[in-house]
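Schema walk-through. Below, the input block comes first and the output block second. Nothing else is stored per chain. Lengths vary across the set, and this one has 255 residues.
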Amino acid sequence: MNDRASEVFSDEELSVWIRRHPEVWHFAEIPGNALDAAQVESLIDSILSGEHQRRRRAQARRRRKFVLVGCVGAVVLGGAVGVAAIIAARQPTVPEAGAVCRAAAAIDADAVVLATGVDPISGCGEQWAKGLLGDNDGLVPPLAACVSAEGVINVFPGQPDVCGSLGLAAAQPHLSPGNDAIVALQASLDSTLNLAKCRPAPDVAVAAEQILRQSDVSGWKVVITPGAETGRCGKASLDSATKTVTIFDFPGGTP
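--- output ---
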C-alpha cells in the first residue's frame, strides 16, 4: 500500500475501512493482539491481492458449503513472429471490491483503494492529482483499467495496451447491469448496517433480507456465521461469487 496514502488515513477512516472488510475481524478476537502499522499494511495488501478471498473460498470448498466455478479463456496465436495472447475486455468478477489504483505498471505496485461505486479512471486520476501515487508532482498520466486475476479492477498508468503487457484483460468501460446491482447492494449494506450503530446479529440478518428483497439481485441468501447468532454487533459481508450475504459479530462493538 502506498506509504503516502497510509499517512493520510485517520483513525476513523481506518475504522470505516475495517468495518467494510469483515474478513479481518478475527484479528480483533485474539486476546492481546494489537496490530502494529506494518501488520496493518500487510493485512490490507493481502486483501488487495485476493489472498484473503482465496483462503476463504478454499475453506468453503473444503466444508462443501459452496460450489465455486471459475473459467478464464484466452486465444493464443503462434507464428514466425512469435506468440501473442488475445484476451477480450471483461467485467470484474468481484465488483464489490471497488477498484485499486496502482502507482506503476506492475501488478504488485503500491496502491490506493477506491470505495465501491467510484469510477475507476476518474477516481484514480484524483489520487494521482493529489500526489498519492507515483512521483508525478500531481500530474495525471494516461490510465488504463484492467481486471486482475482475482477479478478486481486495477488501474495502471499507461496506454490501453498496458493490460495485455501484464497478462491481464482490459476492463470493459462500464459495469454490467448485474454488477451495478451488486455495487448498489454493497452500498446499501454499508450505509444501513456496516457503518451504522450496532444491532444484534439476528436483527441485522432480518434487515439484510429486507435489503435483498428491495435490491435488483436475485438468487442471493443471508446466513449468520456459526457462533454469531447471539452477537450484539452484527455486520454484513457480501460475496458475489456465492451470492451470499454473511452476518458476522463485530468484536468489541457496543449496541
